[in-house]
């Protein structure tokens, strides 16, 4: 057993005594601690049980004799000068003359003027032939640090009581640790390999580079546990909490703060509620009824504002991942998808998390923040992003390319600037969902409720809308090259009618259900156009300016805002553009063209501005002003 004293405060120039060894089997006095000389400049001497070469003649302020036995642990008797105060960190009142000492006790003289930290450590040699159970429990009870020991094939550690222990470079191999209690312990470089640890208690533990491999941890508790403060060097050295091929079903990780890696592990019914998961990775794990309610996923270099709703800066790549282990670039496209079923991520902060290549079934993302997350190539089935509390998720700036949503609740979900190339949404609810500035190229929305959905400023190039409800949907200033609503035209034939009059007599039909479309810049419903007019715009027979101008001439009472009035007045009496490109919609010159609508028209009264605007309209039929 190694015994040592650390002497402080550090600013005092006192040489540290060398650590000395004593057998774990020893019984009797192990050392004497002396403090003497000038109290403002004290001298400290730690003497093992050998005769002193010379006895200090200066005044003694304090001395303590410390003894050890396996049965009684550390005991002491001491003397201190009446003019000074002495206390132990494990003793609230004045230090008694005779008492017990723990292997991590601090002896304070004159309220910390001088502090002596007592440390004791055992290793493999001390274990010897001692019973591992008694050895561990006695070390825990006496505050002795257990270091560099391997416990292999130990079967009698069932219900081990090892609270507040310290383990450093310790291995448990093929051991039985079910119902063991490690509450409040400190683990550093500890491994549990192929061991049974069901119902074990790791509450309030500090964990640094702890590895569980092929461990059975069913219903174990890790509540309030912590990994050490992480930094880049620790990440590079893989100093994390690791679970490899473990059974963690029904485990509890409530309010933990961990940097961890879970791989090929069973996480069915595992509870991570209100946990802070730092750079955590979940590869090829079984997720069924797993709970992440109110959890926070963060990555190195990410800052979070006080509201915990928005990440403000990122200096490192995304490292929080849930799904299949990524393949190497040389192995081609990911074929295997992970499965996340019946899980809860409600009210979680998951900005920048990578959830790509997963099949996500019956899972709850209500009120979840997924800003700039990766949801690439996912399949969402019966998943909700807005639930019982009517709080919607925020999926802004997220990569949703090649993903599928089937029978999902996306009501009022924010998808600002989302990237959704070749995304398919089918039989889902998206009432008042917001796709402003999003990219939906080559995507499909089928048999879905899009009532009040906001597409303003979005790229809808080659978007297919089939059998959707589009009542009051907002399409102001969208890019609509190739927008497909399965339009069918019925023309009412009249003799001696001009081409323009014939166009006005066209009746447009679509597979979608439309009462009216919102064409307001602010999405406030002040400019609404009917189904026939909207479909004529999409089909390329009329421009939006012409439609709105006609509404103005008809005196429609709902055109109230100044912008709409200015548009209709500056548009003139006839802005119908007969040119139709391959993508329909007269305001698109190319399938992948740039912005379709131009800047807002100046307010009425500025003659020069109006003339300039009319001139630009004549020069290009590929743009429109609304």
Question: What does this entry look like structurally?
Answer:
The chain contains eight helices and 38 strands. It is of the alpha/beta class and 626 residues long. The strands form seven sheets. It has a 15-stranded mixed beta sheet that branches. An eight-stranded parallel beta sheet has the order 22-27-28-29-30-31-32-33, with no helix packed on it. A five-stranded antiparallel beta sheet has the order 4-3-5-6-8, covered by helices on one side. Helix 6 crosses helix 7 (562-571).
Our count of helices gives: 8
Helix content: 10-25%
Mean pLDDT: 82
Question: What about the largest sheet?
Answer: 15 strands, mixed
Described by the principal axes of the CA atoms, the overall outline is elongated
Count all strands and give the number.
38
Report the radius of gyration as a whole number of Å: 37 Å
First CA to last CA: what distance? 85 Å
Q: Which residues form runs of ≥5 with pLDDT under 50?
A: 302-306, 308-316, 555-584, 586-626
Strand content: 25-35%
Q: What structural category arises from helix and sheet content?
A: alpha/beta
Write the layout of secondary structure elements.
Blueprint lengths: L1 E7 L11 E2 L6 E11 L2 E7 L12 E10 L3 E8 L5 E3 L9 E4 L4 E4 L4 E9 L1 H4 L4 H11 L2 E8 L13 E8 L12 E8 L12 E3 L2 E3 L12 E2 L4 H5 L4 E4 L12 E2 L1 E4 L12 E3 L2 E3 L3 E2 L7 E3 L4 E2 L6 E3 L7 E3 L14 E4 L16 E4 L17 E3 L22 E3 L17 E3 L17 E3 L17 E3 L6 E2 L13 E4 L7 H6 L1 E4 L6 E3 L9 E3 H9 L4 H10 L8 H10 L35 H13 L7
Parallel strand pairs: 10-11, 11-12, 12-13, 13-14, 13-15, 14-16, 15-17, 17-19, 18-20, 19-21, 20-23, 21-26, 22-27, 27-28, 28-29, 29-30, 30-31, 31-32, 32-33, 34-37
Antiparallel strand pairs: 1-2, 1-10, 3-4, 3-5, 5-6, 6-8, 7-9, 9-10, 24-25, 35-36, 37-38
Helix pairs in contact: 6-7
Protein name: Pentapeptide repeat-containing protein
Pfam families: Pentapeptide
């Amino acid at each position: 057993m190694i015994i040592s004293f650390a002497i402080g405060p550090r600013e005092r120039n006192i040489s540290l005594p060398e650590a000395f060894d004593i057998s774990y089997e020893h019984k009797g006095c192990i050392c004497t601690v002396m403090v003497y000389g000038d109290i403002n400049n004290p001298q400290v001497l730690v003497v093992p049980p050998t005769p002193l070469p010379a006895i200090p003649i200066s005044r003694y302020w304090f001395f303590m004799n410390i003894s050890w036995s396996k049965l009684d642990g550390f005991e002491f008797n001491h003397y201190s000068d009446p003019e000074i105060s002495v206390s132990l960190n494990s003793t609230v009142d004045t230090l008694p003359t005779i008492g017990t000492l723990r292997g991590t006790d601090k002896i304070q003289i004159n309220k910390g003027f001088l502090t002596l930290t007592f440390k004791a450590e055992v290793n493999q040699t001390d274990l010897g032939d001692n019973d591992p159970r008694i050895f561990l429990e006695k070390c825990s009870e006496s505050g002795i640090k257990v270091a560099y020991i391997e416990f292999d094939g130990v079967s009698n550690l069932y219900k081990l009581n090892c609270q507040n222990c310290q383990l450093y470079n310790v291995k448990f191999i093929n051991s039985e640790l079910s119902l063991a209690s490690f509450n409040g312990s400190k683990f550093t470089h500890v491994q549990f390999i192929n061991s049974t640890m069901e119902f074990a208690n790791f509450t309030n533990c500090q964990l640094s580079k702890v590895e569980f491999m092929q461990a059975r941890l069913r219903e174990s508790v890790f509540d309030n546990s912590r990994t050490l403060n992480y930094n880049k060097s620790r990440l590079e050295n893989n100093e994390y909490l690791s679970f490899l091929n473990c059974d963690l079903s029904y485990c509890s990780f409530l309010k933990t703060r961990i940097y961890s890696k879970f791989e090929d592990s069973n996480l069915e019914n595992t509870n991570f509620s209100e946990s802070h998961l730092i750079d955590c990775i979940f590869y090829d794990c079984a997720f069924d009824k797993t709970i992440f309610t109110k959890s926070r996923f963060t990555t190195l270099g990410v800052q979070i504002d006080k509201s915990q709703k928005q990440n403000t800066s990122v200096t490192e790549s995304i490292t929080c991942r849930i799904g299949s282990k990524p393949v190497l670039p040389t192995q081609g496209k990911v074929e295997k998808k992970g499965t996340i079923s019946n899980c809860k991520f409600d009210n979680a902060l998951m900005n920048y998390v990578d959830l790509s290549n997963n099949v996500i079934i019956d899972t709850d993302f209500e009120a979840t923040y997924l800003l700039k997350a990766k949801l690439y190539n996912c399949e969402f089935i019966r998943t909700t992003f807005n639930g019982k509390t009517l709080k919607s998720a925020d999926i802004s700036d997220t990569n949703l390319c090649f993903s599928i949503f089937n029978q999902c609740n996306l009501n009022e979900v924010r998808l600002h600037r989302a990237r959704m190339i070749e995304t398919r949404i089918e039989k889902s609810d998206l009432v008042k969902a917001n796709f402003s500035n999003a990219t939906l190229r080559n995507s499909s929305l089928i048999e879905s409720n899009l009532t009040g959905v906001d597409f303003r400023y979005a790229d809808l190039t080659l978007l297919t809308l089939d059998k959707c409800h589009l009542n009051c949907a907002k399409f102001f200033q969208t890019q609509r090259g190739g927008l497909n609503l399965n339009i069918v035209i019925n023309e009412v034939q009249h003799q001696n009618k001009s081409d323009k009059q014939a166009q006005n007599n066209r009746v447009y039909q679509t597979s979608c259900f439309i009462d009216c479309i919102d064409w307001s810049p602010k999405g406030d419903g002040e400019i609404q156009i009917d189904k026939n007019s909207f479909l004529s715009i999409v089909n390329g027979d009329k421009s939006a300016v012409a439609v709105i101008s006609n509404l103005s001439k008809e005196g429609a009472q709902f055109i109230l805002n100044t912008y709409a009035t200015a548009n209709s007045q500056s548009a003139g009496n006839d802005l119908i553009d007969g040119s139709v490109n391959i993508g329909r919609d007269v305001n698109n010159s190319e399938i992948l063209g740039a912005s379709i609508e131009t800047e807002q028209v100046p307010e009425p009264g500025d003659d020069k501005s109006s003339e300039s605007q009319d001139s630009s309209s004549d020069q290009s039929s590929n743009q429109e002003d609304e």
